[in-house]
Amino acid sequence: MKLLFKNIKKKLYTLALIGAMLSAAGSNYVVVDAEEYVAQQPAIAFDAAGCLVANNTTGRIIYSQNADAILEPASTVKIMTALLAVEAIERGDIALDSPVLVSSTALASLPSDASHVEPRLMAGEALNVDQLLSAMMVSSDCQACNVLAELLGGSVPNFAAMMNARAAQLGCVNTNFTNPSGYPDNKMYTNATSLYLITAEAIKHPLFNKYFGLQSAVIPATNLCVAPRILVNTDALMIPGNIYYNPAVIGGKTGTANRAGQCLVSVAERDGKKVISVVLGARNRTMIDGNVISMRYYESNRLIEHGFNNYW
Q1: Residue 114 banded pLDDT, cuts 50, 70, 90
Q2: Which residues contact 64 (CB under 8 A, 6 or more apart)?
Q3: Is the pLDDT of residue 112 over 90?
């Protein structure tokens, strides 16, 4: 991990020239001298609109930066959807093998880019809760969220109300969920602190952690899909061999949208220490040599390391 930081940091901060951080609007680059740029930065600063890292044992926020800023969460919203599904399973309201028929209404409100399984879910297709949770948490499939929302709440709007009620119970403020997937909506917003509170509650549930930590999954053939669907996690921190891979990370959920930017919630554990990190509103940064750095992953790794080093 130290070698990973050194290699990426070299690309970021020791090039002769570097594209300076984008403006808040994320539009224009300014080219500056790399060493001068680094020298001007605060001792600790993270390239994200909002972020934090917390000690999961004590609940202490180890570091935060604009953690209460109102931001769009993108697909990190799926953590709340999975929490509500897991709680329903624990109450006995549904079971992992409960059959679910995909309705046309669950699919109608989402455009094609909201589906991340191939082939996409189809109206009239029969799946079960386990398969829907896998599609949602591994491939970040939005259609699976709507199917689960209808199962648990009767409709997507009713389920959104359940999400907001649960968020309020957890102490979340400046948070409003309008759909179960995080698909962009001007009226949906939250902040790093609220996502931390939701995640801290969610990881108390072993079943949630099962899906939160899956690197891959398979949805077997269904009545409308003759071949198994292979799912691969969208979180680079959890994929061995990836430049950003962090073996300490035991769970995570990505989120990506134009306005929201790159988002990531991670849970990492090492040497008896467990931390939760949240990054919202990060961006890709293109170096002068053409290399592109994904700041949500780079900064999440920095936050996690900072959390471990300042745990107690």
Answers
A1: confident
A2: 51, 52, 53, 192, 193
A3: no
